[in-house]
Each structure stands twice: as structure tokens, then as C-alpha cells.
Hints:
This protein is about 90% helix and about 0% strand. By secondary structure, it is an all-alpha fold.
Amino acid sequence: MEINATILISALSFLVFIFIMNKILYRPVLEIMEKRQNYIDSNKNEALNSQKKAEALIQDKNQKISEAQKQSRDIVASKADVLKEEKTKVLNDTKTNVAKYFSEQKQNLAHQKEETTSNMRFDVADVANRLTTKLMGEGVAFNPLTEQEVDEVIRKNV
């Protein structure tokens, strides 16, 4: 095989072509591709960071919601307890007032009964003496009713 100048010139022109292509076309294309890859990587990293921030915000929101729900349950429970205590107090006060009222009314009735019984003693004795006088006549002597006899008559008829 013979090496002649045509092969050398072709080889030399090929090397010059590759050098020129490298300077003019390949290096700028490689730089553009590298910039594009960097741009894609930076956007991907930003997206991942945004996703992490969003997840953190969602987790924070869920935590705040659960705390608010717990607080609202505690508030409702405490208000319910307060209302239950007030209800119990009102019921107890009402029971006490009713018991006191009934006790007073019983005492009033017992007092009225005693007064009525006391008044009736004299009236019963008086009516009995009048009836006896009318039935037996005025000149007949008889013994007036004793208190025990009057009490017995009242007990039987009351």
C-alpha cells in the first residue's frame, strides 16, 4: 500500500474538518445539551422541594386540624360537664324547695287540724249538751261530756 499525498491531504482535511466541526457545531450543541440537562435537573429539584414543602404543609394542616378537633371536643365535654353540674344543682335545689314546701304545708295542715279539733271540742260539747237538754228536758240533771269523750267522738267522725 502506498501512502500518497491524496490520502494525507484527505486525512489532514478530515482532521481539520473534525476540529472545525468540534469548535463550531459539536461544542455549542454539547453546551446547549448540558444547559438543558442542568435546567431539567434544577426544575426537577425545585419540583421535589416544592412537593416536600407541600407535604410538610399538608402534614402541618392535618396536625392543626386534629388539635383543633381535640380542643373542640374538650370544650364541648367541659361545657357538657358544667351543664350537667348546673342541672344537678337546679334539680337538687328544686327537690329541696319542694320538700321544704311540702313539709311546711304538712305543718300548716297539722296546725289547722289542731285548731279545728280544738274549736270542735267546744262546739261538740256544746251541741251535745244542747241536744241532751232538748231531749231530756230542761229540768233534768245530767253530766256534761268530758274531754276524753269529746276526743273519742271527734276521732270516730274525722
